[in-house]
Task: inverse folding
């Protein structure tokens, strides 16, 4: 059967997965994703077996020997094949599924880390809650410590989005007026790509994110460094900062420690340290940054940032140097 | 076969009509049923012609939406492709889904029902031919305009399930979303019109002796299909009304910061949307249940089990809608329930699959093209069902939801479960309607290409989704592992399209539709649609003695054609069919059917124009068309309900009346079904009202903010007065002495009381300072008023129509079907209005914080 042949081929492809599919539910790196991946394999094997049984029954019904056909051609066969068999299989599956849901949802302990992620058209606003200090504001790249359960508080300010990092676990929607909490844990250090899974209009396809899982100590150091002020050392960087502040960038974007405190667009306090720009759409290079500022519509049609084609190339150099220095 | 069959005196005695039939009887029958020729064919109402139009239109939309699918596949063939712009792509995928679901799938199965049911049931036509024609024209005109929005770049782009807030005024300011809401809402109304026709047709126009237990499975599925439309479509109609009210007048039903909730839309939409899947699938399964026994040459094994399974699917499918919302953050406990229900629905499908396999085993399957498509259906649909069980598992769904896995799953279920059976059906039934069957050779090519192309296109998508590709993305970066799989899918899609092309060539070269005799029963099938068929359907209406009458009564075709059964001519000089009892199918009366005309056509065109012009905010023009639409309907209805033509002999010593009113009449049944639609609409509203309260009770008014209870009591009393006037009307109408003037005055007074009651209520809310724009709660209060006003308007128009008929002496104590309909409508409206008062005044008091 061609169907079966393709299934086998698919399984062979899967064996080579993690290398070439960076956003895969089948290469889990977190406990929840692992449980679901195991469930998936059970489902695939079971479904293939059942499909084969149906194909065999159909083939025998068409061209089987008379006695076999007499058995398949009876009401008894319908009762066993259509009622008893699925009832048993489905009951077992349901039990397993409910047990899994207990595992994933009924976790009692309160984790120490809570990260608020808010869906925006078309990027991710990230706040790290801290006791006794202002939250640390980030965007689009979420740094987390390895091995710790983290509660992501998911909200939306505009339309419905869905937060999905397949290697770590299932998705959960971000719905205006609600806060949904998703608990995830990364078992090993690594970079896990995620993407908005609920169609949110326009460039929905270009609303991605990365979770960067690092060892606990490194994470704490990174979080603590948020309050450190980046004093521009080079003159070019200083000129860039001046431009940034004088041409109105701060109306939408914030950089900690400066007058730029805009809340409309992504926080840029550590934009230079991020791997990507424009919600994991563009590699973070000076060239891409300059291109994006000049006309965001080229790389990300529909993006809400207005074009800034006003800068000379020296000015643009200074600006990208400044933004690149923010780490 | 011009000469009657030879038969002995013994068999002749069992036949209801004596042979030979008198001179001229056949000619009179032919003359009555002769349809208009040339371009005037647009005025035809006969189910065969309307069925052809309907199927052709649905297939046209299938091809158009299929081309959109190919454009999608071209765009996704390579990463970072710029073949389509973002906005164009978003419009195209929205239209692909919307057109396939609303303009192809549902109309296509409804169309097959309209074409086949009368023949299959032994009726001359469906009970409301003009309603069927109206439904078709409204759908065709509305659907065509809706599709054309794509060419002007103003098509909706919010996805086929149109989730707010994305589709609200703030995030979709253009007219695209309005096209969807008004266009699709309107087409759903046409689907409901068709559903009413089908229910009454299946239950009341079956051939004598065709008890429910002998009814072909296809008729069972169409009955359940239509019943599901009656209860499911109102939910989405309500949702579209609410969203359009929000967009046009800023009533915040779905805006969270003002006390609405975006999830309310999802509940209402999927309460429709899940049954919708089965609405599409069940008739297709019914077609398979007709084809398999014929091709295997043996009766269906497990007929009763299948009927039970079909009914079970109908019920279960209303309890599953939340499985489209597993990732919205709904508590785990409720998810468990919906997960269980979603799995349980696999069992009835399992019963059907094994029943078809059993039937194949019990007989000997001829491997015709129709059989091949059935086999393809069985394989693809089974796989789709298995992936359906997977996504019913909540943890798995949290990964698979909104990815290409779901795209693959839904195409396996819908294309496998509906399009494959539809192709099988076209190959199977074409000889009944075309002078030539389709080609078995081209058909095999078509099947091979479609089957292979489909699997090559959609099987890889399961994997594409699980390795991270979300649905509805117009582009994707390279290096995600999706490139090769997408390219394979695109190649498969084009192989599939080639198969469709081969099929089209087959249709063009071989399908020769006729209103007269087709190629005939080339498969040696057992059911009535294979009787010799003419514009008037069969010459005489048979008495049925089994599930496969042509197998159990070998002489049936000859006798029917010779006119040896019931109603071999026209008894009253009109188009007629026999109305039978709903369960045992015993003849009750002869119903006269309408002739071709233009009033229903104008009604359809003006109704379509009303909705379409409203979309582009041409309010005055729209209002004019609305008035013209109502006027056309009144003209159309004016000649309905003809007076009794006395009792007529239909043969076999059976004398039947030609007029019926009250619970026995077809109009009474249709009205009751219409009121079920209205009730389902109002129940959806009630759900929405209570739902918004559960979500945000803090936004509900305090005791002191509510309008005084006095106004509610006054309004209720006025409703009571309206009911009393109605009762008075009924009493006066039933008296020996006709008093049309008095009846008319009472009706007008009663109507005024009804309108007054609603006005008092709205005025009391308004005077207490309540404005619909303030919050989700206030919007719901005024939405209640809007729904009541809608019913009241229907009552008032019908009442005025009734008054006009009274004064024109077209309505009296005997000829009173119009009044009976009005009374049902009126009583329901009073009940709903009283309930609305109780709800909007009582509930807030019940839950108010003091």
Result:
């Amino acid at each position: 059967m061609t169907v079966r042949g393709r299934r086998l081929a698919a399984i062979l492809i899967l064996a080579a997965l993690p290398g070439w599919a960076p956003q895969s539910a089948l290469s889990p790196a977190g406990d929840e994703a692992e449980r679901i991946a195991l469930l998936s394999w059970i489902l695939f094997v079971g479904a293939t077996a059942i499909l084969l049984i149906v194909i065999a029954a159909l083939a025998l019904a068409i061209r089987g020997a008379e006695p076999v056909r007499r058995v398949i051609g009876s009401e008894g066969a319908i009762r066993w094949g259509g009622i008893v068999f699925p009832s048993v299989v489905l009951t077992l599956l349901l039990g397993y599924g409910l047990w899994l849901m207990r595992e994933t949802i009924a976790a009692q302990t309160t984790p120490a880390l809570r990260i608020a992620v808010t869906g925006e058209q078309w990027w991710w606003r990230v706040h790290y809650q801290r006791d006794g200090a202002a939250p640390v504001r980030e965007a689009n790249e979420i740094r987390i410590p390895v091995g710790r359960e983290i509660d992501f508080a998911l909200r939306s300010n505009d339309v419905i989005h869905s937060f999905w990092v397949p290697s770590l676990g299932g998705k959960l929607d971000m719905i205006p007026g609600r806060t949904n909490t998703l608990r995830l844990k990364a078992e090993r250090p690594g970079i896990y790509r995620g993407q908005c899974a609920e169609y949110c209009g326009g460039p929905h396809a270009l609303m991605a994110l990365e979770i960067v899982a690092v060892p606990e100590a490194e994470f704490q150091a990174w979080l603590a460094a948020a309050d450190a002020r980046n004093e521009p050392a080079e003159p070019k960087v200083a000129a860039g900062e001046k431009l940034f502040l004088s041409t109105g960038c701060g109306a939408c974007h914030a950089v900690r420690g400066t007058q730029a405190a805009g809340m409309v667009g992504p926080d840029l306090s550590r934009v230079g340290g991020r791997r990507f720009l424009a919600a994991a759409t563009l590699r973070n290079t000076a060239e891409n940054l300059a291109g994006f500022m000049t006309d965001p519509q080229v790389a990300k049609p529909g993006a809400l940032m207005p074009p800034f084609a006003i800068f000379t190339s020296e000015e643009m150099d200074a600006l990208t140097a400044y933004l690149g220095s923010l780490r | 076969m011009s000469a009657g069959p030879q038969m002995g005196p013994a068999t002749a005695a069992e036949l209801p009509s004596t042979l030979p039939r008198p001179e001229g009887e056949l000619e009179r029958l032919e003359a009555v049923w002769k349809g208009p020729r040339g371009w005037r064919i647009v005025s035809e109402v006969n189910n065969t012609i309307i069925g052809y139009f309907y199927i052709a239109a649905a297939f046209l939309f299938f091809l158009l939406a299929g081309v959109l699918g190919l454009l999608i596949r071209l765009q996704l063939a390579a990463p970072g492709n710029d073949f389509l712009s973002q906005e164009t792509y978003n419009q195209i995928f929205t239209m692909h889904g919307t057109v396939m679901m609303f303009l192809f799938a549902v109309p296509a199965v409804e169309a097959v029902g309209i074409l086949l049911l009368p023949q299959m049931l032994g009726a001359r036509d469906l009970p409301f031919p003009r309603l069927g024609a109206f439904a078709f024209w409204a759908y065709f005109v509305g659907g065509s305009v809706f599709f054309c929005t794509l060419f002007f770049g103003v098509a909706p782009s919010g996805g086929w399930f149109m989730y707010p807030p994305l589709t609200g005024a703030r995030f979709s300011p253009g007219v695209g979303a309005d096209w969807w809401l008004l266009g699709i809402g309107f087409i759903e109304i046409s689907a409901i019109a068709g559903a009413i026709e089908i229910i009454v047709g299946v239950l009341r126009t079956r051939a004598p002796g065709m008890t429910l237990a002998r009814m072909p499975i296809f008729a069972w599925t169409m009955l359940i299909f239509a019943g599901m439309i009656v209860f499911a479509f109102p939910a989405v109609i309500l949702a579209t009304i609410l969203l359009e009210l929000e967009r046009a007048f800023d009533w915040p039903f779905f805006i969270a910061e003002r006390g609405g909730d975006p999830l309310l839309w999802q509940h209402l939409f999927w309460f429709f949307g899940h049954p919708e899947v089965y609405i599409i699938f069940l008739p297709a399964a019914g077609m398979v249940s007709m084809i398999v026994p014929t091709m295997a040459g043996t009766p269906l094994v497990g007929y009763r089990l299948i009927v039970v399974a079909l009914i079970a699917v109908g019920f279960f499918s209303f309890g599953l809608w939340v499985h489209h919302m597993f990732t919205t953050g709904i508590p785990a406990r409720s998810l468990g329930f919906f997960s269980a229900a979603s799995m349980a629905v696999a069992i009835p499908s399992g019963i059907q699959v094994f029943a078809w396999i059993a039937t194949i085993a019990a007989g000997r399957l001829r491997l015709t093209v129709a059989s091949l498509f059935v086999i393809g259906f069985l394989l693809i649909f089974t796989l789709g069902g298995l992936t359906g069980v997977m996504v019913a598992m909540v943890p798995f769904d949290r990964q698979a939801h909104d990815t290409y896995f779901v795209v693959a799953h839904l195409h396996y279920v819908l294309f496998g479960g509906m399009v494959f059976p539809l192709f099988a059906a076209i190959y199977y039934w074409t000889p009944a309607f075309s002078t030539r069957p389709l080609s078995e050779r081209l058909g095999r090519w078509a099947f091979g290409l479609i089957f292979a192309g489909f699997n090559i296109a959609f099987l890889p998508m399961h994997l594409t989704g699980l390795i991270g590709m979300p649905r509805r993305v117009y582009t994707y970066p390279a290096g995600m592992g999706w490139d090769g799989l997408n390219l394979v899918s695109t190649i498969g899609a084009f192989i599939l399209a080639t198969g469709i092309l081969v099929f089209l060539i087959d249709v063009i070269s071989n399908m020769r539709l006729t209103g007269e005799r087709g190629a005939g029963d080339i498969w040696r099938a057992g059911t009535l649609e294979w009787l010799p068929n003419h514009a008037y359907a069969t010459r005489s209406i048979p008495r049925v003695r089994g599930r496969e009458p042509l197998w159990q009564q070998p002489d049936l075709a000859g006798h029917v054609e010779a006119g040896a059964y019931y109603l071999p001519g026209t008894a009253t000089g009109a188009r007629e069919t026999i109305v039978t009892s709903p369960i045992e199918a015993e003849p009750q009366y002869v119903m006269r059917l309408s002739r071709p005309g233009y009033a229903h056509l104008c009604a359809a065109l003006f109704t379509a124009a009303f909705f379409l012009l409203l979309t582009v905010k041409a309010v005055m023009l729209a209002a004019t068309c609305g008035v013209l639409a109502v006027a056309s309907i009144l003209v159309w209805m004016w000649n309905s309900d003809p007076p009794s033509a006395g009792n007529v002999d239909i043969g076999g010593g059976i004398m039947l009346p030609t007029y019926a009113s009250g619970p026995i009449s077809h109009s009474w049944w249709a009205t009751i079904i219409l009121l079920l639609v209205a009730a389902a609409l109002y129940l959806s509203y009630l759900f929405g009202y209570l739902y918004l309260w559960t979500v945000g009770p803090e936004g509900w008014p305090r005791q002191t903010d509510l309008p005084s209870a006095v106004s509610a009591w006054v309004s209720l009393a006025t409703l009571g007065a309206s009911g009393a006037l109605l009762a008075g009307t009924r009493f006066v109408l039933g008296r020996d002495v006709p008093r049309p003037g008095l009846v008319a005055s009472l009706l007008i007074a009663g109507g005024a009381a009804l309108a007054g009651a609603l006005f008092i209520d709205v005025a009391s809310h308004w005077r207490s300072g309540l404005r619909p724009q303030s919050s989700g709660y206030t919007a719901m209060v005024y939405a209640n008023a809007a729904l009541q006003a809608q019913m009241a308007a229907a009552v008032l128009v019908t009442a005025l129509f009734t008054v006009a008929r009274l004064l024109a002496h077209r309505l009296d104590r005997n000829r009173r079907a119009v009044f009976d309909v009005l009374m049902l409508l009126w009583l329901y409206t009073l009940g709903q209005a009283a309930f609305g008062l109780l709800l909007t005044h009582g509930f807030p008091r019940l839950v108010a914080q003091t």
Notes: The CA atoms of residues 56 and 123 of chain A lie 50 Å apart. The mean pLDDT of chain A is 90. Chain A is about 40% helix and 20% strand. Chain A touches chain B through 93 residues (CB under 8 Å).
